[in-house]
């Protein structure tokens, strides 16, 4: 069984700290993808900034594991996010590959 988590980041569109750290942030996300933990990620296109990251973790991983994992993101470590919200999510209908 896979546990999914939706991670919502809030930041100002065009924020210079976000722009500066984006390469390191994307490298971090690439490592999650390589580990089979990243389902999808990307910014919203409405001009207000912010992004959504979807994670798939193992059956024994919970909310605190998702938080601990996302604490490693350079955006979080450098304190450039205006907000971060992590919620466990149940994709009742999905096409996501399972990592289990």
Automatic annotation (TrEMBL):
Alphabetized Pfam families for the sequence: YCII
Determine the domain of life of the protein's source. Answer: Bacteria
Domain YCII-related intervals: 16-90
Family per UniProt? Answer: Belongs to the YciI family.
Q: What is this protein called?
A: YCII-related domain-containing protein
What organism does this protein naturally occur in?
Corynebacterium maris DSM 45190
Could you read off the lineage of the organism from its UniProt record?
Bacteria, Bacillati, Actinomycetota, Actinomycetes, Mycobacteriales
